[in-house]
Amino acid sequence: MADVQHHRSDDGKRRNTERSNSDLTAFLLLLLLAFYGPATLIWLDIIPFALRFHSLLISAVGLAVYVVLRGYSRRQLGLRTDNLKDALLINMTFSAAAVGALTVVYGLGLIRAPTVPTWNLFFPLYVVLFCPAQEFTCRAVLFAELERLKFGPVAQVLITAITYAFIHIIYRDLLILAATFVIGVAWGAIYWFRPNFYAVSLSHAALGVTSILVGLV
Length: 217
Known about the structure:
By secondary structure, this protein is mainly alpha-helical.
């Protein structure tokens, strides 16, 4: 009987290991297809730079289908209101500080001249569509996946920040990469502490618009 129980225990451990390896492989494939692959193709000019927002939306739609198939709940994706007040307070405080810093840097002439997109609907679409799409992909989905894979808080924040920074490689600017990594760490830490998609999307919109107007992006 003891031998049978031991054998069953070994089988269970092996299945858990196989499942863990399978989940990790699926996650790495997800990173490649939805994040690192498209950004690299744009950086190499295989996908035109002008299609960067189209690529983002395609990835967001694909990930929306993915999370439905994975069975994630709204709460797991940060689509919640129970912590909205605290999340808004923290995110807006960070946004105000970051916007102030960008304004000072711009005033000192340390950022290149702004290149604001000329199409009329850019900023409305940026606020209501592009920023939420980035937050859905880079924060909501990635944190849900990393939590399911049982990564610790530090790993979750760093992996999401690195991924968020990497998709900005398309701008070919080291300052943008450094800035988006630092901002990604801040947003990641806030999101881990108060996971709320709505709050971080508003913060992204406020900081993103400022970044475009002062020439950072």
